[in-house]
Amino acid sequence: MSAIIEEHHHDDHHHGPAKGLMRWVFTTNHKDIGTLYLWFSFAMFLLGGTFALVIRAELFQPGLQLVEPAFFNQMTTMHGLIMVFGAVMPAFVGLANWLVPMMIGAPDMALPRMNNYSFWILPFAFTMLASTLFMEGGGPNFGWTFYAPLSTDFAPPSVTYFIFAVHLMGISSIMGSINVVVTILNLRAPGMTLMQMPLFVWTWLITAYLLIAVMPVLAGVVTMMLMDIHFGTAFFNAGGGGDPVLFQHVFWFFGHPEVYIMILPAFGVVSAIIPTFARKRLFGYASMVYATSSIAFLSFIVWAHHMFTVGMPLAGELYFMYATMLIAVPTGVKVFNWVATMWQGSMTFETPMLFAIAFVILFTIGGLSGLMLSIAPADFQYQDTYFVVAHFHYVLVPGSIFSIMAAVYYWLPKWTGNMYDETLGKTHFWLSFVGVNVTFFPQHFIGLAGMPRRIPDYALQFADYNMVSSVGAFLFGFSQLLFLFIVIKCIKTGKKATAQVWEGAHGLEWTIPSPAPYHTFSHPDEVDLKEAHG
Amino acid sequence: MANDATYESYYVPTDSKLPIFASLGIFLTVFGMGNMLNEMKAGVDSSFGSWVLLIGGLVLAATLFVWFSKVIEENHAKLYSDQMNRSYVWGMSWFIFSEVMFFGAFFGALFYVRFFVVPWLGGEGNRVPSDYLFYPDFVGAWPMVDTPDPTRFPGAIEPMGWYGLPLVNTLLLVTSSFTVTLAHHGLNEGNRRKLVGWLALTVGLGIAFLICQVLEYQHAYAELGLTLTAGIYGTTFFMLTGFHGAHVTLGTFMLLVMLFRAMKGHFKPDDCFGFEAAAWYWHFVDVVWLGLFLFIYILGS
Ligand SMILES: [Cu+2]
Hints:
The complex is a heterodimer of chains A (about 525) and B (about 300).
Chain A: H1 2-11, H2 22-26, H3 30-58, H4 69-104, H5 112-131, H6 159-186, H7 199-230, H8 244-261, H9 264-278, H10 285-299, H11 314-326, H12 328-342, H13 351-374, H14 376-382, H15 386-416, H16 422-448, H17 463-493
Chain B: H1 18-42, H2 48-76, H3 82-121, H4 128-134, H5 165-188, H6 192-224, H7 232-263, H8 273-298
Helix pairs in contact in B: 1-2, 3-7, 3-8, 5-6, 5-8, 6-7, 7-8
Bound molecules: copper (II) ion (CU).
């Protein structure tokens, strides 16, 4: 047996990808697995997007036209779950898989077989989750935050499969993050210090730490639900001495760090792209690292700002209000640094840069509405209205998702060896940019005017803005098919890219050929650190 | 960090069929379990779910067995440099950290219930009106033997004391932490008899702990009226000690595997990651128990 292993050892730096479909099933290569994650997340993005369009179609006019209220609830729930756990998170893990080893001069992820395991759990988990829609009693209908007792005493039977699907996603995320942390801590090229790592690697190190810390808490809270539903425990039942509010505390202890899990890697992406197209080094690298760390720390101690109206003691309301406001400080540092990086740069506006600049502006709008929501007395008015929906969609769609698109355009030439079509890319950007704002900006107004979220019908005075919002949503949704076309066209017929790709780009990934060879940095002495500091 | 001696060659395993079988196994396990639970709840008499669960569990167990054997073979074939081995050390440490956070969720629930929910249900603080309307007769106390709604959650006759079996279990686990350390000393000295002997004793203590826990649960159900459905006291008691018991089971199994490996002649003083990982896990389980003993048994009764 050991002779066989020796043999593998000798040729494993030379072999290319295996032939056929099984390559993707058995692969241990970080680039293959990154590709799998990215395509999977795009499929989930289209599925979750379809659910969103069902919601927006129903809300196009007041009254009930297309779907039953019960099905509407399943759509809002599944849209949230699929987008958070199926689209945004796996997309960032895909980027980490592709980029982290190349950026730190590592041969692969630290635990390559476990890396494959982390990915292949996901298709099973999401198939099980999506199949609940066809079960008796329908799929999960209690909102993506699945508050008890809606998700326990009053849940459809399919909730059991929902719980186990969340368990599977948690196992996948924890193994994936352990892999990222270990790769970064143990496989950096000789001589690369932590403070020489590109910011994308830094943000992912901290993101992975957050994931390892809070995914087990999510597993804990769904386990409590499972026990309450099937084994008669009293976690969320006041009759037995428990408390439905306990659910919210445990859930949001996971949930608040979760929103940073979905935005910190985006900060890393933007911090890579803006310096390239401004042709300057990133302004305030060290302060970016410290700001990211502070945000991660603060994210653990602000969770109850989601629960201001639940009846907390006054001291709790005040504490969570002020602690939440503190997060604006490190976030402000970041926005300042991005703007300062662009200041007096010789800027060009290729598609990745357009998405990155839109990210800075629109994410800031989402951040400011977040600051409004952090004011406890004002939040009593905003709670559960479309203002909240507008807020978190501004940080997630033109925030996280724009950054993912920026990353795809930026690194696609490195991945495929071909340039994408710049005109089509810019068209995709402008359609998305207009679509996103037309969809979500009016939701601020209808929210402040009092329209509640997660309801299929609404009062007549909200009709105009809802119609505008629905038109924007369909514009944004169908623009993403253009994105798919651009990526396929790039792979099939794109012009050959150079190794450097972008004139102003720095970092180890640009020192290797395009497309990146199947194995890179296979020996520790292959790395030239002069290019390292991103 | 930049010391060249710490960097040798990298080992990247080639394609592997193991993860996809592990994915399939874990999927069938949870799908079968979900199916079984839903059938039980609906009163359907079908064994479909339990068969899927059984098959999934077997696929998962067999895959993990082959997987771990392969890693051990690769290690014996000297494919792992010191740097590669550090990946496993980091991996295990972060895995234990994730387990700490899992227990953290349940400890957090216990503290929240005990220090906020129970007094509020008893009429303290700013939730007085609603709780007064729902449960006017309820008196908040911990351990909660009388629940606000006894028709659904019958409550217990008596809480679990800390002396007797729980105290014995504490002594067993603390002792086992010492014995596993003595086994480690044996390993470091190259004294295999010492390693095997102390390790076998550790496994024995782990099994003794589990037997005592079974006896304790029987005592709770039969004599104290303390059940999983008794209300939040029973809920937190059984969930925290139960998950801990599950981890003791896993830890004992890991140590047992290490015992077999030690008897087969595996492990050298500078090559014993498997043993160390099991030992760290065992210390973690021990520390969790000390937390349980303090917060569930001593301060909870
Ligand atoms: Cu939050």
